[in-house]
Amino acid sequence: MSEFQAYLQLGFSHITDSNGYDHILFIMALCTVYTLIDWKKVVILVTAFTIGHSITLALATMGLVSINRDWIELLIPVTIMITASLNFFYQIPKSSFSKKEQTSTLRYPLAMFFGLIHGLGFSNYLKTLLGKEAQIFNPLLGFNVGLELGQLIIVFIILSVSFVLIELMRIQRINWINILSGIIFGMAFSLILNNPFFRTLMGMSVN
């Protein structure tokens, strides 16, 4: 296995790892209001997130950007909560096939901005893997490609589930969005409450 393939596999495993499900929650929050019919909108949205996290992943891995890891680990669930909260204000079109649906343009710059934060989180893991390795281009590229492959699979699963529930089983779209967004919000809030750095900031016991 080449170095590129090894880091590709590590990137894929990192974003799909259920033990580090914060990034999965964010992708879910991004896609909750959509189904397979909206795939073009999702491609644009996820591309904005990808551009954001690719920038800081590269800069941080090369040592050009350095931010306290504790803050990044705290800010990631905050981005999830904000994204999930926006879903409650999503305007449902009269028909799922309607071309008149208006998606808030705020979602796209926010996805890119939040991607910058998540990229710093990805870089913490990648820098741990690299250690003192001098050549980082192939590992960086492979890891990023692996992240994208894993991300696309997560997106496809979420959109497929939404399509089945809403279009085939005729579950009310607003109910699906509110329930899933509420679950995601609650899980992100739990991550914040259990974050040792947050508990220290709040003067709470870390035990």
Give me the secondary-structure topology.
Elements: H1 3-16, H2 22-31, H3 39-61, H4 69-87, H5 107-130, H6 137-168, H7 173-193, H8 196-201
Structure write-up:
The protein is built from eight helices and no strands. With 207 residues, the protein is mainly α. The protein has one domain. Helix 3 packs antiparallel against helix 6.
Number of domains: 1
Element order: H for helix, E for strand? HHHHHHHH
Rg over CA atoms:
18 Å
Mean pLDDT: 89
Total strands: 0
Protein name: HupE/UreJ family protein
Keywords: Membrane, Transmembrane, Transmembrane helix
Pfam families: HupE_UreJ_2
InterPro entries: Put_HupE_UreJ
Entry summary:
Helix content is 72%, strand content 0%. The radius of gyration is 18 Å and the shape is globular. Mean pLDDT is 89; it is low at 96-101.
Pick out its properties.
207 residues, globular, mainly alpha, 8 helices
